[in-house]
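Okay, is this right?
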Amino acid sequence: MDNAQHSLVDGDKYRLKTLIMVNSGNAAYVEIPLNETAALLSRNNEGKTSGLNALKLFLLPEVNFRNCEQKFEFKSGGEVYSGIKSFNYYFPAPNSFLILEAENPVGDFCVVLHRSKEELGYARIMIDKPYEAIRHLFWDIHSEANNGLGKPPEAMALSDVQQTLLQMHGEVFDDQERIRTAMYTRYTPGRRETRYCIMPTVQPPSGALLKSIKALLQLSFDIKGASGGNLPQAIANIIDSEIALTKKSVNIDLKQISEDRESLRRNAIQIQAIKNHSDDWQALNRAYHTFNTEKIKAHKRYWLLRASLEPMQEGLEPQLQELHGRKASLQRQLNGAKDSRNLANRKLSEVKGGLNLLAKNLATGQKNLQGAEAIIQQNQLMCESGDPQEVVDYLQGILRDEEEALRSMESKESATAELERRLGEKKTAQQEAAKLEALIADFGQCFLNHLDSHSATVLNSLNTDFRRLSITPMGSQAKAIQGFAELFTLNEAGQLVLGGEILPTAHVNPYDEESSRKEAENLLDAVRRTIGGVDKRISELHRIISANGPLSQEMLAEKKTEIVELRGEIALLQRLPGIQDDVQNRLVEQEALRAQQDEFEIELKYVEEHLGQLLAEQEEVTEALRALDDLRHAIKTTKQELNHAVRSLPELESSTRPASISAQLITDPGELSAHYQPLEQSLRAVIDAVQEAEHRFRVLAGAGIMDVPPEITHKPQLDDTEFQAIYEQIRSEFENLDRKERDHKSQIANHNHRTSIEMSMLESMGVAIENFQSRINETLEGIRISNLSGVSIRIQALQAFIELRKELQDYGRGTTELMSESFHRRLMDFSEKYLTSARGSTKLNLEKIITGVRFIYEIRGQKEDTSQSHGTNGMINAVLLSILMKKLVPEDVVFTLPVVFDEVGSLDEKNLPELRRVVEGSRMVLLVANPHNNGYIVQYIGRWHDIYTRKLSEGFAVGKCQAVHVIRHEALRGEVTLPSSTGENAAPEQSAAETVVTAEDEA
């Protein structure tokens, strides 16, 4: 079975051997092997994964659980555990310990973790000895306790363990820098702390390297379903570490780039500012074009309104008369509909009144029912029945006692005799209450709780008094009881069967701790109520015996009142059948009235709908009348507005009506006002343009740009031919460029070129990612996995990074224009999000840039990225884990890490031997996890450990820490022979060894 481990190439070997949990997690004492391929068996959610996750506490140089979510990322089912929750899980008590046994070229050594005085803190002691030499501090393996598995030592206090380890030359490591040096520095003679090196790294452990180690650990804990974030994170940090070694970090002076761009932008503004009277020219040009454009618009808009008024005025008055007639007719119909609605409302009100009266009678009956139910509930526990008649019988018994008490109140001799009897009843009840209180206080020590489920059910079915016992059976007693219980079987009819015969009066009564506890609590409450009643009666008897004449009369009156109330309760229960019948009859009557109510509501709804239709029609007529009034007002207003337009531009009235207007006429009077606004805007724009053009023309003419006749300067006519010629000459002057503008563009070109060179450093980061991907794929080319002829990876990068690389390829090449503001903002935004500055240099955050890793599978020469089986993906993850781990440790070092394949029972049988071959061929140890053993786990793994099956049966358990496991393999005798992998469908070869299960005790 260990051929793969023994066939490793020569080199310094560093490996993890055993993880030991003492009063930690779910373990009282559990040894988990890390140095050999094996199956870890336990039910789901019992702690397999959380136990292996404890390796992070050893392999990461941390000393507390603060900021645990980022440090360790302990999580399950998507939930990330907090520091306090993780601390309480791994170190629930002062005598909680985690021990890692490891091996390096010097030999075996141990790292012991325990609580520290720091809040949420833990400390470590490293000792230059194998675990065998210190096991006695944590577990007595030679004891026959716990079915021969051993027991905790008599004294296992934290101080004692610390003192003993230090006396054995153990060393305390409480400084993170010293821990980092010890764990990651390759063993070097003369450097004492390197004796405890667990994982030698190629470089000092930086933040990126530690992130890589954490991500690879997470990947190793579940290579089947490894999180999609672990692999990209590990790759990102390994690339980051490689870049740090080569000093190729990105150095981009974004501040200088921004300042240069701003300087050039100000130069451009300055060029525009010094152009002689350029604003005046632009204003003149705009005013001239506005004058011509808006004049044409005003002409069209004027005629559109004027022509649209004509059809709107036609037929206005006849329409008004017709609508007024319709309005009068609708009012008459509305009056009739309102009368019908009033009648329907009256009928509905009468039915509702009947329902209200019936509801009051029902409430009285239901109140009596509730009172009777309360009496039954109050007394059913004492009379052990909820049947009304049996409760009546019980209450009549109480009534007889009360009547007897009333009679005894008239005789002190009778009262004295009853007092003695009541005192005896109270003592008996108090003794029973004391037993119940003791049982409830420590119900976990109930006799049946110490037995297995079947034995507890059999005894509980034979006699329920067994669950009242609080004795703890000895081991021999428990075995005897179990043997006795095994004589009984339970059939489907819920009966006990002994020797094939059914016990006629014994019915199966499954034992449940919680329900039994609740039953005991209810019984205790009943006994306490009995004691209270007896106390009350004793008090009365004392008063009777010592009372004088007037007090006796007062007590007689109270007792008679109680008897009257009791008789009333009995009478109510005796009348219960009649009350129930009355309530039922009234419910039937209520249903009939509700049906009648529904009928009248439908009738009312119909009347209201008809009324609503008439009101809607009335509103329609009213709205039509309102629209005609609005039309009349709109026509009048528009005529006034057109007269105002003509006063502003008189030539409109004498202008020619455009032929195209007829196809554009306005039909909605509400739009008349909206269409006048554009006309008014055009008229205002024409006037403003004339004033602006005259002003700018006079300014330019006075500037001496060219000779302008004085009469045109004083009052230019914008549509005059002479003005047109001068205007064209001015335009040609402002369209020439000067030498300073050409120099400015040359400066922009130089700026863009320099920026392009500096930003090309981002491209080098993309190349680094691609080169790393190529190196990984070159390594993968020589590896064959399952039925794949080849496999490769594709590192996926952030889309924003990809797009920015594409844009930067053409940045600034020969252009004389500044890059767009949008590109500049995008560049700065990318830099703020993904570039971090520290110590004068800029670094690209690769954890955000690398977003995923895709597998490309080659099957029979065809490449595809369709997801493969869990087994195939597990093999690929194992190979990648090995490759990536080699990036972290020196080439001549063999670091063996356990990898876990969870739920291996769901794996296709033919993939298991191949998975083992790939993992061990990658110089790692395969640990498969499954809730139970099966044939092909036995066949292809050969070793297994029932980690959480055995529980602590002797000794004190810390919280939930109950599992006990000492490494005693259940395994196949002989070596496991894996099937051939020469063909895709090769049949498994049977092992030549005899497949007999045996136990190998390695404790």
The radius of gyration is 49 Å.
